[in-house]
Write a structure and sequence with these properties.
3 helices; 66 residues; globular; mainly alpha
Length: 66
């Protein structure tokens, strides 16, 4: 998870000029998939806070790059 601990929001990742467009897309896709898995686990009764809003921001950031 190259985004973990480095970026708090997808917008921070988008503004990082040291990361290529392709790397940003790959990181955002991984972030999105991780959040989907997390939300699915939460739905199955595992503890944790809802990250639906963050998932929306990730998808928006991906759309801006594509």
């Amino acid at each position: 998870m190259p985004y973990f601990g480095k970026y708090d929001t997808p917008d921070e990742l988008l503004r990082d000029d040291t990361v290529s467009r392709e790397e940003k897309i790959a990181m955002l896709e991984q972030w999105r998939d991780d959040k989907k898995d997390y939300m699915r686990a939460t739905d199955e009764g595992m503890e944790g806070e809802d990250r639906a809003e963050l998932l929306k921001k990730i998808k928006k950031a991906l759309a801006e790059l594509q």
